[in-house]
Every structure is written in C-alpha cells, then in structure tokens.
Amino acid sequence: MSTIKLKYEIPANDFIIAGEASSNVKNKLTQIGVSADIIKKAAISMYEAEINAVIHGNGGYAYVEIFSDKVVIKIVDSGPGIPDVEQAMQEGYSTAPDKIREMGFGAGMGLPNMKKYADKLEIYTEVGKGTTIIITVNF
Amino acid sequence: MKEYFHSVNLDKDKCRGCTNCIKRCPTEAIRVRKSKAQIINERCIDCGECIRVCPYHAKTAINDGLDIINNFKYKVVLPAPSLYGQFDKKYSRDNILFALKSIGFDYVFEVAKAAEIVSEATRQLLKNNEIKKPMISSACPAVVRLIQVRFPGLIDNIVKLESPMEVAAKIAKSEIHEKYNIPMDDIGAFFISPCAAKATSVKSPYEKQKSNVDGVIFIKDIYLKILSALNNVDNTKKLAEAGADGIDWANSGGESGALGTEKVLSVDGIHNVIKIFDEIEADRLSDIEFVEALSCTGGCLGGPLTLTNVFIAKTTQKKHMSEASKKSINGIYKRSYKDLVWTSNVEYKPVMKLDQNVSKAIEKLEMLEKLYEELPGLDCGACGSPNCRALAEDIVRGTANETDCIFKLRERIRGLAEEMVELGGKMPPVMDRDK
Ligand code: SF4
Ligand code: SF4
User: Fold this and answer.
1) pLDDT of residue B1
2) What residues flank ligand 1, with Cβ below 6 Å?
3) Range of B408's domain?
4) How far apart are CA B185 and CA B74, in angstroms?
5) CA-to-CA distance for B188 and B67, rounded, in angstroms?
6) CA–CA distance from B213 to each of B9, B96, B164, B204, B246 (Å)?
7) Which segments constitute the Histidine kinase/HSP90-like ATPase domain (chain A) (predicted)?
8) Is residue B1 part of a domain?
9) What is the average per-residue pLDDT within B159-175?
10) What is the distance, to the nearest Å, from the Cα of residue B90 to the centroid of all Cα atoms in its chain?
C-alpha cells in the first residue's frame, strides 16, 4: 500500500510563509480526490498547528503522511513547551505577546480549533524542550 | 454527460506558441503542444485572462454575431451596465440606449434595472439566518466556475439567485408579451456582454436547463455600430430608467455597496479572488456576510471584451451614476425573492483529481512528487506546461514526457554524447593495430 510522506520546514516568526505547508497539503488532498469537508478539517487543524509553531515554538518541522484512508500530520517544534495543556485547550486562552495579537494571530483558538477539526489529537510536550502535535484526520 | 461547453477559444493561425498565456491561467488550463496553445476544456472557467495577456490576439471568444437577432420576429436588447462606460462622456445614457436600439432592436431593457431587483432579493436573503454566510455573489460566472473546479467547500456559499441578465430577459419578455400580445416564442432577447463568461452562462447555464437569453453579442463587436449610430441621436427619447445602484454593478464594489451593510467584502481580479477564497475556505474571514467577487480587475468595466480602458470607463460610469436617481425611476418591482431562486444547484467538478480511485491517486501523486524533485524547478514553461509541477502532473496523467523538459533533454543528450565518444574510441578488433 503506497503512502505519501512529505516534510516541510516551518520557519520561526515568519508570518508570510506560515500557512504555506497547510495550503500545499490541501492541494495534494484535492488531487487525491478527498472530499471537501475532510480537506477543510485537515487544512484548518494543520494551519493552526503550523501557526502555533511559528508563534510559540521557534519554528520547526511538519511531517505529513497521506494514507488511503487518513492523513497524519505531525508538527514538531523545539520551543518552550506547554506548561499546562488543559489550560491551553481552553478557548481564548493565549500566551501570545501583544504584538502578535495585533497582527490578528494568537487569539487562543489554536488548540481548541485543532481539537474541533482533528479526528484524533495527540500532544506531547515538555517544558524547555518542545512540543509535538499529531493530528489525524480520517477520510 | 454532454461535453462541457466554454466560450474562450484559440485562433490557431495567430498563435505562435509563445507560452505567455499558460502562466496566467488561474486553473492551469492551457498547454502549448506542437507550437500551439491548447485549452483543457473542463478546466477553463472562461475568465478571459488569456485573452488579455496574448500578445498576438490569438485567444478569442466564440460569439453569436449580430445576425443572430434575425432569427426572431421581435428583438429585445439587454445592455450590460458596463456598456455605458464605453463611450465618450458627452453622450447621455438615453443617447447610448437610443443608438443601441436603432441598430435593429425593437425594445431595450437595461440589465442595470434587473440588477436592482437582484440587490433587493439579496438583501432579503441576508436577513435569513438559515443561509450560509458569507454569501458569495454569483454575478460573475467565471467566479462560479472557479468555485466549481477549485473550491468545492464554497459551493454552499454561492448566492443561488438568478443573475441580472437572466432576470432582465425574463421580465422584458413577459412585459412585451403582455403589452403587445406577441407570442413568447417570437421574442428574442440579446445580451450585450463585456465578457466570454456570460456567453458561457447562456450556452450552458449551471443553474437551469435553458437560459432566457437567446444570444450574446460582445461589446467589442457592436461598439462601432453604436458609435456611428450615436452621430444622429434623438435627444427627446427617454429610455434610461435604471438607478445609480444598478448602474454601479459594472464596478467592483457596486453590488455589495447596494446591500446597505458594512459586513461586505469586495474583491476583483481572478488571482485576488483565489486568495480570498482560500481565506474563506479556511474559516479565517470573520464578520463578513457577503462577498462580491469579480474575475476582472475593476469589475465588469474591465471585462476582457470591452474596449475602453477600465480606469477611464470608471470615470464615465461615475458620471452616468450621478445623472441617475439612486433607484430605478419606476421603483423596483415588488416581488418575492423566491421567484429568483435557482431551481437546481451547481456541482463540484473534480478536474484536479488524479484518479477515480484513492489508492491509485496516491500512487500517482507519489510518482508526481518524485518526478517533480528531479525537474530543475525553473518554471520556465518551455515544455509547454505552466510550471515544473504541472509538467510532473502532465507526465503522470500521460499527456507529456520527461524529455519535454529541455534541461532533462539536454542531460539525456549529454549522456548519449559521452557514450558516443566512448564508443567512438573503441576500434573493431580487425582494425586495432596496437594488439
Ligand atoms: S479563459 Fe481563463 S481559465 Fe480559460 S484558458 Fe483562458 S485563462 Fe485559463
Ligand atoms: S467580472 Fe464581469 S466582465 Fe469579468 S468575467 Fe466576471 S461577469 Fe464577466
């Protein structure tokens, strides 16, 4: 069974490039013929994770694997980690600095949105080391 | 399914295969093969970008020609709001409409007037909480086709109301039928169009089986005729009825401006439209209830088959608006918006899909990625595909070869040349004296 493995670099603090990886994945899912609402789930949750890595994680990498029945998106950063995951899961909770909020990012919807759109969300985080987020969306 | 019809076409004799057009096409619908451009029909949305960009004017639009009006006993002309901006400021709307009518029509009905009716219907829809927001205008057929091929997630956001052109044809026909007792079948309605997209929406309408419009004549084709008729205008004739709100539909921002709410966004230029649609599809556009998206920069005044420069046309259009009352002089027809609602829906056209079967599509995508890695990434277009990725896609689809890439070809030739040199150094044993 063939799968597609993709890797993207997520540069730190670069809002111009942020979101490119998720829109790239969106195009690929379209070429495979995945239905629109599923593509939307994958694209939005990946975008949020990507933006989080840009804002909080000093950038990192996105590893995407597309199977015939699901897509698994792994976003790895080596940022400060999340001290209290439960708190971070709450809508509107944000530790983004003002200057980023002014740009319209960091409204505290990142993790809640990922949870809303992903079929499975795994968060591995260690303070001082970094965060790995794994999003699974089933076709 | 019947073959997909679209209006934009290639004049083979004029095409030099220069590859200018392939890069501008928003759906990557053009390839150059055998030094001629080819349009992949299912992908073309008739936006007319290629008509604008072709330096040799080889891209045209299939037109009905003026003679088509002779197929009907009674002829109605439906000028697009963008027609007004085409002529010198000194001519009033009455002048233009009179000149247009005198070319051979029995009746004029301004599409701008119908636009006001559609605006009213849209205002009613906006209040309806059951309708998905943001609503996306369906006024530009190129944009609706774009959604069909590239943004399936936005199909439910399309405003499912008939276009001003359709509404105008319908009202004009029934008015004439009632007033003069002329059988419906004898009445022909002809739209004066700024673009090919409108012609397509008449020939193969997405929202219903048959259009009320019987023919489309492009502004560029009728311009001269109107111009000469303008020489002997009758200044006593009053034909202009539409209000400024309707005339403004020719401009980007006109349709949304008539809705009476701030929660609107208007975007023009097909490549800008794509960016905004990406935002909407990803749920990143907040507090917007209506999106007016027009394929042409500046709106229909910038249509690919108009003649006057869009920025000049805008000033002229402004003059016409200032001379008109805000709303149509007869007041707009009191009717429920329900009459205007589409009877069927548009469908997603998955033209980007690599295969019907998901596993096969994955295999193909994997192959595509590998091929793409190997290509030089210069996006030069010399292979006839718009960029390296598109070439990789074409190879996977079986419509191109790796050696279509001139760099790949050179690599192969160099390899062969080296091999030849090596072989050339080898002597047949009978002739080899060193042995
Ligand atoms: S009309 Fe638009 S979509 Fe069609 S081939 Fe030309 S540029 Fe492409
Ligand atoms: S913006 Fe107007 S002129 Fe341009 S393609 Fe759309 S409907 Fe036609």
Assistant:
1) 38
2) B 8, 24-27, 29-30, 39, 44-50
3) 358-425
4) 9
5) 12
6) 21, 21, 11, 11, 19
7) 51-137
8) no
9) 94
10) 31
Best to test chain B binding among A2, A4, A26, A31 (most B CBs inside 10 Å): A31
At which residue do the structure tokens 């019947």 appear? B2
Q: Distance between CA atoms of B317 and A121, rounded to whole angstroms? A: 55
Mean pLDDT computed over B377-397: 94
Amino acid at B77: V
Number of structural domains in chain B: 3
Cα nearest neighbour of A6 on chain B: B369
What separation in angstroms does the CA of B111 have from each of B163, B189, B193, B309? 9, 12, 11, 21
Q: How many CB atoms lie within 10 A of CB B418?
A: 10
Angle between helices B111-127 and B164-180 (to 10 degrees): 120
From the CA of A130, how far away is ligand 1's center (Å)? 47
Q: Residue B204 is encoded by which pair of tokens?
A: 């193969």
Domains of chain A: 4-138 (3.30.565.10)
In the block, tokens 């400021």 appear at B89
The closest residue, in CA terms, to atom 6 on ligand 1 is B50
pLDDT in tens, A17-67: 878 899 899 999 999 999 989 999 999 999 999 988 888 888 899 999 999
pLDDT, position A93: 73
Residue B349, domain member (yes or no): no
Strands A70-77 and A130-138: antiparallel
CA atoms within 13 A on the CB side of B95: 18
**What pLDDT is stored for residue B252 in this prediction?**
95
B205 cis-preceded (ω within 30 degrees of 0): no
Tell me the per-residue pLDDT of B388-406, one tens digit each, with 9 for 90 and over. Answer: 999 999 999 999 999 999 9
Question: What is the distance between the alpha carbons of residues B294 and A99, in angstroms, rounded to a whole number?
Answer: 34
Token code pair at residue B163: 């276009």
Judgement on whether residues B416 and B320 belong to the same structural domain of the protein:
no
* Structure tokens that stand for B193 in this block: 């169009």
Tens of pLDDT, residues B228-258: 999 877 777 789 899 999 999 999 999 999 9
Quick one: which of B20, B157, B119, B73 has its CA closest to B332? B119
> Quick one: which of B49, B51, B91, B37 has its CA closest to B273?
B49
How far is residue B405's CA from residue B424's CA, in Å, rounded to a whole number?
A: 28
Q: Which of B358, B359, B410 is nearest to B380 (CA)?
A: B410
Provide the CATH number for the domain around residue B29: 3.30.70.20
Q: Does B186 touch chain A (CB under 8 A)?
A: no
Partners of residue A45 in chain B, C-beta under 8 Å: none
Q: What's the average model confidence in pLDDT over B63-90?
A: 94
> Residue B312: which region, alpha, beta or left (left: phi > 0; alpha: psi -120 to 50)?
alpha
